[in-house]
Amino acid sequence: MNKRRPNPKQVPDPNEPLWRSTLRVAMPLNLSYIPIGLACGILLHAAGFNTLLTGLVSILVFSGGAQFLIATMLTINSPLLSIVLMLFFLELRYALLSSSLSPYLKGQSNRFLFAFAISLNDENYAINYLKFATDKKWTGKEALMVEHYSLLFWALSNVVGSLIGSALKIDLGVVNFALTALFLYMIVMQIKNRLTIVICLISGLLAAACMMLTKSTLGLVISTIIASLIGFFLETTLRKRLPDSHWLWKLRSPGAKKSTVESESDD
Questions:
Q1: Kind and range of the H or E element at 189?
Q2: What integer pLDDT is reported at residue 170 of this predicted model?
């Protein structure tokens, strides 16, 4: 009989340098940034950014959604105020993300917190939050290194994408398509219940109406604020007065709608 070899668990090497062990944790995220970063760099170049500006915006903004938004709004000659306001509301979620990490960063200096805040994004937040919650030895220094590794890979991918874009002729219509596909993906990932779908439809109708009234992209900012307030009011009202409403049923699988709600209400 062949003896089955045991599958030993990976034991951290105590002699491994900190930078290498942290890089190993961040490497799956770093590799996933390469194709998206290349595409973002190509689109930024098509929108008029040279390689230097692409590298700067990658470091200073460090948000794929925001950089795709910048590229698209510049190609349609949107006013600077509209771009700034759209970026503000798009990136406002980081206030909530960073607040959930604040208990793990108590006692850090203001300089550290500043460096941590400017290099935070959705993906490295997910890695650090998971590590903080599951690994008691995970420190703020390692978390900051994860952010800097991801920033380095993202910025380099953007710069290489810009160099590729300078050698290619890109149709500017691709920029609009890329941003539309990106935000459709973000919407689908945020849909958790039926109420979310309703708010998405309301937001789309408000965006069209406000765009026609203002005749500028400022209408998108106005519609975003109104739709957010409507969604907050509806969800709060339903959870207080009708907690078993079918509008709050979770959209997991066809057979896990009403049964999920009933099990939760029974508990």
A1: helix 173-190
A2: 64
Closest listed residue to residue 224, CA positions, set 178, 174, 175, 183: 183
- Whether 163 and 54 have beta carbons less than 8 Å apart is answered as no
Name the nearest CA neighbour of 117 among 95, 133, 84: 95
Half-sphere exposure of 228 (CA within 13 A, CB side): 10
CB atoms within 10 A of CB 258: 11
25: its two tokens: 């944790």
Q: How far apart are CA 29 and CA 42, in angstroms?
A: 20
**Residue 248 or residue 217, greater confidence:** 248
Q: CA 141, CA 198: separation in Å to the nearest integer?
A: 42
Helices (H) and strands (E) in the chain, counts: 12, 0
Rounded to an integer, what distance in angstroms lies between the CA atom of residue 110 and that of residue 189? 34
Closest CA to 194 of 259, 241, 240, 238: 238
**CA proximity to 181, closest of 68, 81, 42:** 68
- Look up residue 100 and give its two tokens: 């959930």
Per-residue pLDDT of 159-174, as tens digits, reads 999 999 888 776 656 6
Judge contact between 19 and 145, C-beta under 8 A: yes
Count CA atoms closer than 13 A to 61's CA, side-chain side: 24
Q: Is the pLDDT of residue 260 over 60?
A: no
Place of tokens 């003896």: 3
**Tokens in use for 175?**
């920029």
Which residues have CB under 8 Å from 132's CB, separation 6+?
101, 104, 138, 143
Whole-prediction pTM:
0.69
